[in-house]
Amino acid sequence: MEAQGQPLRFLCDEQILEIPFFQRAYVWNDENWKDLLEDLLRTSGSHFLGSIILKYANARAATAKKAIVIDGQQRLTTLSILIKALYDSIENKKTKLINDATEALFYTLKSSDSNYLLSIKHSHNDTEQFQEVMGTVVDGEIQSPVLNELDKINEEDPRQLIKRCYKFFYTQLMNISNDERIDLWDNLFDRNNKILVVIDLDDNDQEQKIFDTINSSGVRLTSTDIIKNALYQKLIEITKDSEKIAEYYKKTWAETFEKDDDIVAYWNTEKSIGRLMRQNSELLLQTVAIIKGIFDLEKKHTIQQLADLYKTEIENYTEQQLYDFIDEITGYARIYKEHIPDFNSKENFEYKNDDLEAVELRVMHILDKNDISTFNPYIIYIFKTYEGQDSVIIEKLREIERYVMCYLITKTATKNFNKDCTTFINDKNGNEIKKRIDEFSNAQLKAGISENVSNKLGAEILFWIELKRRLEPKYDTKTLQFNYQLEHIMPQKWETNWKCVPYVDDNGKELPDDDESKKRRYKKVYSLGNMTLLNGRLNASISNNNFKMKMEGEGKKKGVIKYSSLSVTKDDLVENIYNQNKQWNEQSISERENYLGKEVVELWGN
Questions:
Q1: Has residue 310 been placed in a domain?
Q2: Do residue 480 and residue 434 come from a single domain?
Q3: CA 325, 329, 330, 335: dihedral to nearest 10 degrees?
């Protein structure tokens, strides 16, 4: 990789700057154009317009020098349009002006050629419109119809952004003097005015990793962009028929990932993968790669390498193999979109083990709320492999649920989830995950809820305990939305208002007021037995107050009783403790631990 500050004149030294055929369309708008022009028209200060990332293609004899634009197509397109608008706006054009313009915007295969070609070879999205704006070189002049059709350009039409960009620049430039326009031209083409950083990549450089490193703002280049282009560009190279492949692209990739705004929004939704954010589309492609063995954790592959792994995979593919692979990707995409949801607080959940939709929603919610996406490949594999066999899919999903919850509750290290997923996919008999589940005992699950239970996990466990309780006939409402607040009954800051509550053991025997008793109480505070769910958030002064005030509230400040719509609060605390005039202490917490532990075993134990 080599990075250098460059003047805009670097365009004169290039021949073909190719926007990958299936790269995203031009998206800059009035605000971007205005900022760029105002910056360039400033009479003082330096101008830095950002970076361009180029990857040079292998040169062949009798062909033009070509670089693939990995990043910077928006900037390059805009600057080219500005050059053209500026050229058209300057009166009494000089030979120098024509030479600069033709060298920056066009190239010839040979110095003796009179046939000029556009230097920037646009993607299928913008080729026609860009060609119309740039025009052609005829008898030493650049001619295009766009200048005479400015009135026809709709300034609100999102499909005419390239034409609108030209109209914006030309109109704004005509509002300044001709001398100022000439000064701007000279400034743009000044060899000492290094307004861009051009980064040249070689074959060993990973564009995804480099882009992530240098790009701290703007639209991040994704693995999806690179993989998509690699697949369809290779088809074009094999078939030599870009129109045919463009139509195939519309029927496959565009139909799957770009059909309407809602679909685009879904695939662009980002989720955290460790310290990185990745779009659903990238996670899908990683999922496919894991299922097919392209992505191998044993080889320490990372998601930053995903695009290169795909490129290596398809390097020797035939035309038919590429068609089959693309069809496979889009097929998995439909399954992924249907079964990997983006949760909000409005989903209705119900505890059922004989209904595929209910089980699927429960399992995906548990994974989502605990930030576990590593099982997505196995889940997608299950739905594809056992399509139409609902009972088998339910069994497989329940195994994932039990496996994950056993790990979370017992606080067993989860660093092997990625490898486990691959193992389960490759285990055609399905015995491996059963063996892993059997390694956990019911005693371990009960012990796991007795200390250091996180708020996130505590809320999830109590929510599903609540829904399972609602299978009993006495409950009219069987479904709930996940929109409750987790509360520690004995507050985390218990020393402020609870010091008067004597320390006791699990049987109610009073303990001495010493450090050991204090440590034991802190441990009990973070037990599931001390947690509940409320349908409202307590005021901080009530939340940290003594048990009586915490339950009753004070004045307009509501207490637990007012928010106790759930059994885990109403029955466990209001009916069994408060209404019985019992004290909430270590004994009460331990007793609740015991019966919640039994319910946890019923849900996820052996």
A1: yes
A2: no
A3: 140
Q: How far is it, in rounded angstroms, from Cα 287 to Cα 294?
A: 10
Q: Could you tell me which of 563, 589, 586, 590 has the C-alpha nearest to residue 574?
A: 563
Residue matched to tokens 């010839």: 108
In whole angstroms, give the CA distance from residue 601 to residue 604.
5
Q: Which two tokens stand for residue 203?
A: 């074959």
Tell whether 251 and 319 lie within a shared domain. yes
Angstrom distance (rounded) from CA 152 to CA 135: 17
148 and 166 belong to one structural domain: yes
Tens digit of pLDDT for each residue in 305-329?
999 999 999 999 999 999 999 999 9
Indicate whether 177 and 49 sit together in one domain: yes
In a domain? residue 347: no
Distance from C-alpha of 434 to C-alpha of 428, rounded to nearest angstrom? 13
Give the C-alpha distances (Å, rounded to integers) separating 37 from 150, 173, 356, 465.
19, 9, 57, 61
Query: Under 8 Å CB-to-CB from 446, ≥6 apart: which residues?
Result: 593, 594, 597, 598, 600, 601
Range of the domain at 268: 223-339
* Residue-level pLDDT at 60: 44
- The domain tally of the chain equals 4
User: Is there a single domain that holds both residue 143 and residue 259?
Assistant: no
The answer to whether 534 touches 526, Cβ cutoff 8 Å, is: no
Tokens of 191: 């060899």
The pLDDT of residue 57: 65
Going from the C-alpha of 564 to that of each of 141, 456, 485, 517, 574, the distances in angstroms are: 80, 19, 11, 30, 8
Q: Are 304 and 206 in contact (CB under 8 A)?
A: yes
**209 — pLDDT class (breaks 50, 70, 90):** low
Reduced to 3 states (helix: H, G, I; strand: E, B; else coil), residue 92 is: coil
Sequence letter at residue 315: E
The answer to whether residue 577 sits within a structural domain is yes
Give me the residue label for tokens 């646009």.
Answer: 122
Between β-strands 276-279 and 553-554, what pairing exists: parallel, antiparallel or unpaired? unpaired
Instruction: Flag whether 346 is in a domain.
Output: no
Q: Which of 387, 405, 440 is the last residue of a domain?
A: 440
Residues 129 and 93 in one domain: yes
pLDDT tens digit sequence for 36-55: 898 888 755 556 677 787 87
256: Cα within 13 Å, side-chain hemisphere: 22
